[in-house]
Specification:
Elements: E1 71-77, H1 88-104, E2 106-112, H2 115-127, E3 135-139, H3 144-149, E4 173-174, E5 185-186, E6 193-198, H4 199-205, H5 210-215, H6 221-231, E7 244-246, H7 250-260, H8 277-292, E8 317-323, E9 334-337, E10 351-353, E11 357-361, H9 368-377, H10 390-394, H11 400-410, E12 414-416, H12 427-436, H13 441-459
Parallel strand pairs: 1-2, 1-3, 7-8, 10-12
Antiparallel strand pairs: 3-11, 4-5, 6-8, 6-9
Helix pairs in contact: 7-8, 12-13
Length: 460
């Protein structure tokens, strides 16, 4: 693998671009006229009439660039989105931004608002008719209430037929629809959410490598549990386990394994998923991991602590359903496979896309179509990688085989999870009662069914 270039996380996926090629004329110079040959028997003695010269069609000049009169285009996030200029790719994009500023007579401003203040800023400013930014990045799940409030615009309202997003989508892509309508857009990128495993521990304990099971078509919940149980050991006979089969946040396990069983707490069309028997089956399996088989390492003492997402880093845990952004500082070699298939897998989706970010155009933005077009154009820069996400993935994995598998079998297989973005939806109450209080899965779902339905009605 080539040397890591260290692109920033935000712009790893923003450098793919197509090169437009001009097609040559297919006229090989043949004469398509109807002039008769000199010995044509129908020729007359009249002098030949000269054909009037054909006028060449006037070449269409490209439309003049819109003059934005020196205005500022504001792009907001809870981090600094401006390219730092530390790499060739970042420098190329800075040059592109400057080129566009000159062409359209405007200035870019990148606004950085703390995460805890961000959504309130989006909502209050836009409802007041003065959006604090033209383009704002948001987690899709947190944008759900804004759809009903009517303060974000559908993609169809600010894009044209010639924009890349409505054609090849090499520069910009439409992100998953919410309530049947597409609002969010983003650059092509990589997201590797899967079952990460400690390859060093696999070798030490003499276990079968999960990639071997996956490649053989045997990577299922049953095999996952079998490996987790085999890795949970008291290796020094002191009465305490020294290695563990699994670690992680139970809510993540429920979401991701739910997707591999074709079930979700809330479906993408805002219909109830929590009462689906396939989700109950998933929650039973998660409960089995945490409370029956006891294969989970709980470092904090609280099974429902989100920080258990980091316990895998200790090096004594075999597997964790985790994220590419969370495995860059490991002291051991890590491998990855898609999350194991449940009994009702749809064979297409392998993880819940619960934290997908996307850009949104806020209601009230002036010249929205022009603003969008400029933003899309700002990513039309030469590629700096041999394949999408190369620099990022090479900072995560030591083996090209892991990268190849991640790109082929994990990236792009997510299913949008939105339950956390539905105000008052009782996902955490359900998980607390099952995991911490050992309550019955079926009884817990029934207990919270009415509250879940009421929460969904508020955003429809």
């Amino acid at each position: 693998m080539k040397k890591l270039k260290g692109l920033s996380i935000l712009f790893i996926a923003m450098m793919m671009v197509t090169t437009a090629c001009s097609g040559g004329s297919n006229n090989g110079g043949s004469n398509t006229g109807t002039n008769a040959p000199a010995n044509n028997a129908t020729a007359t003695n009249e002098p030949a009439k000269e054909e009037p010269a054909k006028e060449e069609p006037a070449k269409e000049e490209p439309p003049a660039a819109v003059d934005l009169g020196g205005r500022t285009i504001k792009v907001a996030a809870w981090w600094d989105q401006k390219p730092a200029g530390n790499t060739a790719g970042e420098k190329a994009r800075l040059d592109k931004l400057a080129e566009l500023e000159k062409k359209y007579n405007f200035k870019f401003e990148f606004i950085n608002v703390p995460f805890e203040q961000y959504m309130d800023k989006v909502t209050t400013s836009t409802l007041a008719g003065e959006p604090f930014a033209d383009i704002a990045i948001m987690e899709l799940k947190r944008a759900i209430p804004l759809v009903k409030q009517g303060i974000i615009l559908p993609v169809s309202e600010f894009t044209s037929a010639t924009d890349d997003i409505n054609n090849e989508q090499k520069l910009m892509q439409k992100l998953p629809a919410m309530g049947g309508t597409e609002y969010a857009f983003g650059t092509p990128g990589v997201q590797i959410v899967g079952t990460y495993y400690n390859r060093d521990l696999v070798k030490k304990l003499g276990l079968q490598d999960p990639q071997e099971l996956f490649n053989a078509g045997q990577w299922t919940w049953d095999k996952f549990l079998e490996l987790a149980k085999a890795a949970t050991r008291d290796t020094d006979n002191d009465g305490k386990n020294d290695t563990f089969g699994y670690s992680g946040w139970p809510v993540d396990a429920a979401r991701h394994l739910g997707v591999t069983n074709n079930a979700m707490f809330v479906n993408e069309d805002l219909t109830m998923g929590m009462t689906d028997p396939k989700l109950a089956e998933t929650l039973e399996f998660v409960n089995r991991l945490y409370n029956v088989e006891n294969v989970v390492k709980v470092k904090s003492g609280n099974k429902m602590d989100w920080n258990e997402t980091n316990t895998f880093k200790d090096g004594d845990v075999l597997m964790s359903i985790n994220y590419d952004w969370n495995v860059g500082d490991l002291t051991f070699e890590v491998g990855v496979v898609p999350n194991p298939s449940g009994p009702n897998t749809d064979s297409k989706h392998t993880y819940a896309n619960s934290a997908q970010n996307g850009w949104f155009m806020l209601k009230g933005v002036k010249d929205a179509q022009t603003i969008y077009s400029i933003w899309e154009q700002s990513f039309d820069v030469p590629p700096t990688e041999e394949y999408l996400g190369q620099d990022w993935l090479e900072s995560r994995f030591k083996n090209q085989a892991d990268i190849d598998l991640a790109l082929k079998s994990v990236n792009g297989t997510g299913r949008l999870a939105i339950e956390e973005g539905i105000p008052d939806f009782p996902v955490f109450a359900v998980m607390d009662e099952i995991i911490l209080q050992n309550q019955s899965v079926s009884a817990t779902i029934e207990k919270h069914k009415a509250a879940a339905e009421a929460a969904l009605q508020k955003v429809k």
